[in-house]
């Protein structure tokens, strides 16, 4: 069975380290200096607590089930991220290059799990960006910062919520996803894309073409398999959306009829022709 990626622990407190400067490389010294600097800073708390999850296909079932969907083994890694310093300790020590094909890592708010059918995700959806592996780590870090810095949350429509972000490994690319809770809020969908295209892409990054990213509701995935209870929630939401669409259509038709009626009333009446008899006739 595939093993989870290990966290690098060189230089972290509680571990014995050699004090021989002759065996330290410049890169290692810079890493240690960065860690020591973080230790001296007062923790900057994040607005929400975040958890790291690792996901891999179930090798005992040859990866795929009969319907073509992947079974997964979801595991929480490390401790909860409660501050900016916690995030950088995790991010600087997570070897993205060691994540194997079809394995995934997620940074999700506490209380959320990276599962489509989870009760807090069931009505949501996600943007997915296909990024070349050479640029994946940088793009991934920027997207995570947009999440923990609440910039993604700030652009959402009222009543919507960011659930988390994820990175999945494919043959020659990383699939980086952003999950939110309510796929029916189109303003949220549009705003997430606009923010990523303007804030998550470095200047020297190759431009993302429209076929490199897509949006999808969780319920539209082939492997989506909710419990009967969650299916009832979906059916109820679908009925509300259909009712709202019917009401909006009726209101639009009524507005068109009102406009047409007002336009017909505003047309001036044609002038009446009055025949005047010739002079001399009585």
Automatic annotation (TrEMBL):
<feature type="region of interest" description="Disordered">
    <location>
        <begin position="233"/>
        <end position="282"/>
    </location>
</feature>
<keyword id="KW-0396">Initiation factor</keyword>
<dbReference type="InterPro" id="IPR023398">
    <property type="entry name" value="TIF_eIF4e-like"/>
</dbReference>
<keyword id="KW-0810">Translation regulation</keyword>
<feature type="compositionally biased region" description="Polar residues">
    <location>
        <begin position="14"/>
        <end position="25"/>
    </location>
</feature>
<protein>
    <recommendedName>
        <fullName>Translation initiation factor eIF4e</fullName>
    </recommendedName>
</protein>
<keyword id="KW-0648">Protein biosynthesis</keyword>
<feature type="region of interest" description="Disordered">
    <location>
        <begin position="1"/>
        <end position="37"/>
    </location>
</feature>
<dbReference type="GO" id="GO:0000340">
    <property type="term" value="F:RNA 7-methylguanosine cap binding"/>
</dbReference>
<dbReference type="InterPro" id="IPR001040">
    <property type="entry name" value="TIF_eIF_4E"/>
</dbReference>
<dbReference type="Pfam" id="PF01652">
    <property type="entry name" value="IF4E"/>
</dbReference>
<dbReference type="GO" id="GO:0006417">
    <property type="term" value="P:regulation of translation"/>
</dbReference>
<dbReference type="GO" id="GO:0016281">
    <property type="term" value="C:eukaryotic translation initiation factor 4F complex"/>
</dbReference>
<keyword id="KW-0694">RNA-binding</keyword>
<comment type="similarity">
    <text>Belongs to the eukaryotic initiation factor 4E family.</text>
</comment>
<feature type="compositionally biased region" description="Low complexity">
    <location>
        <begin position="244"/>
        <end position="282"/>
    </location>
</feature>
<dbReference type="GO" id="GO:0003743">
    <property type="term" value="F:translation initiation factor activity"/>
</dbReference>
């Amino acid at each position: 069975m595939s093993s989870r990626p290990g966290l690098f622990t060189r230089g972290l407190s509680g571990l014995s380290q050699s004090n021989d400067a002759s065996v330290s490389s410049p890169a290692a010294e810079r890493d240690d200096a960065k860690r020591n600097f973080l230790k001296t800073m007062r923790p900057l708390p994040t607005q929400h607590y975040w958890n790291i999850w690792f996901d891999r296909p179930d090798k005992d079932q040859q990866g795929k089930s009969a319907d073509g969907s992947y079974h997964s083994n979801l595991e929480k890694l490390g401790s909860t991220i409660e501050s900016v310093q916690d995030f950088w300790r995790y991010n600087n020590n997570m070897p993205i290059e060691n994540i194997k094909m079809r394995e995934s890592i997620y940074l999700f708010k506490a209380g959320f799990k990276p599962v489509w059918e989870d009760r807090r995700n069931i009505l949501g959806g996600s943007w997915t960006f296909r990024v070349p592996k050479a640029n994946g780590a940088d793009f991934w870090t920027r997207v995570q910062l947009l999440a923990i810095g609440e910039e993604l949350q700030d652009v959402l429509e009222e009543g919507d919520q960011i659930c988390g972000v994820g990175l999945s490994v494919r043959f020659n690319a990383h699939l980086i996803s952003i999950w939110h809770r309510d796929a029916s809020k189109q303003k949220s969908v549009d705003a997430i894309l606009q923010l990523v295209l303007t804030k998550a892409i470095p200047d020297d990054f190759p431009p993302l073409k429209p076929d490199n990213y897509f949006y999808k509701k969780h319920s539209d995935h082939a492997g989506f398999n909710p419990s009967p209870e969650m299916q009832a929630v979906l059916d109820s939401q679908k009925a509300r959306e259909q009712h709202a669409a019917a009401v909006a259509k009726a209101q639009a038709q009524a507005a068109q009829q009102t406009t047409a009626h007002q336009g017909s009333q505003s047309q001036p009446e044609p002038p009446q022709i009055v025949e005047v008899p010739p002079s001399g006739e009585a």
